[in-house]
Amino acid sequence: MKKKFNLILVGLLSLSFVLSACGGKNESSSEPAESLAEFKEATVNAPDVLGIKLTDLNGGGTLGGQYAGQKIVVATRTGDFADALKNAAKYFEEASGATVEVQSFPAGNDIEKIQLDLNTGQQFDAVLMPVANIHSYAEGGLVQDLQPYINRIASPNLDLEDFIPSLLKSYGLFQNRLVAFPYKPDSQLFFYRQDLFEDPEIQQLYKEKTGKDLVVPTTVEDFLSTAEFFTQKYNPDSPTKYGYSSMASKTNSRLIWQNRLAAYGGKDVDENFEPAFNNEAGLKAMETMLELKKYAPSEWLQLGWDEANTLFANGDVAMMEQWPGLYSTIEGEQSKVKGKVGFGVTPGGAPTMGGWAIAMTKSAKYPDATYKFLEYVTSKDGELLKIDYTMDPTRTSNYDRPEILNSSPMYPALLDSLSAAQILVDPDVPYVSPKLNDIMENAIQAVLREELSPQDALDEMEENFIKEIKAVGLSL
């Protein structure tokens, strides 16, 4: 696992820019840098998390009450996001002297409320939002480049290289600027009935029917073969009714295609915001999706989050691609597969990535204090303050801690999946991500309902992508 990370890290560091944690001066900040000699290093009443005693909750010695009298307002979505920030804010306030106010808005209203404030009200100093939103704010000049603050006041323990490389690149970087720190990682995972894959009788039956050994599929070819075997329509001896499932309702179905697109070497858009899917990779991903439909539930197109998860937890499905949140369902009291599920990377090795990042607004009243809060909640110890609020770690070193790995059997697969993920669930195109999502959903639904051929769907998607991207002046 460490070898894999080293290879990814080399690729990241070979980019045309280098993120430095020392030297330089921040020209954008209205605050003078604080001298460490001017305050006493803070001692924080640090909690234990999963048996880990947190020892670095004073910003590596850079916090000592020097921001007393300063107030930071952070905006995000109501629920776990807000609760996680509030929990960390208690310790940051103790260390820094600053006051942190977390303003949150219900899902569905949060994007509109935060966008309005960034454009007009300018009350928020920081925002915690999905990656696509953060990058739209960056394109509009509404959030700041964090590099000048890193150069001037960063904790000696910041260690940017410790972030999972794919997250720092996909979440934090936009047009060669570090506009955010990764906060909540997310990736599609592969859930499978481990008890069935390890059953000697089922292994023997698979060998007899296919001539191959039954293994957890990593290639698309093995994925399809295994899905067919575990589908009673094609194998009456299958212990499960369906070999495969996922969410295929509108707003979710594009994931089925996206999980294969990068595996075949494709992308949604390239670095110039040009569509990059109307090719052999996009077509093969469509054809694989139609093949998977044969092994999925008959009501597949009606399956949303709750319905799809319940079907898997009831033991009707052998393999499923889903977000990590499925774990709480399969480990619930009503689950028939509790303790029987294994976890891996989606077959093909290029799962779709989601995720949230935290950024500083252009209008931050106290930018130094705001930067220190962003750094604090995403630090090695600081990010563990969010783990009880369904916010998984974003740093490699935290997945190396035995206490973290032992807290969830899903974590090794999550780490590998986050490392391998290449495509964001929301196309990384400022301003129009929601519209592009709708275009993909309409096309995927039409293919699944056999209203459009895969090639016709790709042509239609490309045409509509170009239209929307050009409308906001982004396509070159």
Counted up, domains total 2
Rg estimate, integer Å: 23 Å
Annotation, overall tally of beta strands: 14
What is the CATH superfamily label of the largest domain? Periplasmic binding protein-like II
Residue-averaged pLDDT: 91
What's the number of helices? 19
- Structural class, by secondary structure, is alpha/beta
CATH architecture classification name of the largest domain: 3-Layer(aba) Sandwich
**Which overall shape is indicated by the principal axes computed on the Cα atoms?**
globular
Low-pLDDT runs of 5+ residues are 1-37
Which CATH first-tier class of the largest domain would you pick?
A: Alpha Beta
Largest sheet: 6 strands, mixed
Distance between the termini: 39 Å
Fraction of residues in helices?
40-55%
Protein name: ABC transporter substrate-binding protein
Pfam family, one: SBP_bac_8
Keywords: Signal, Transport
Signal peptide: 1-21
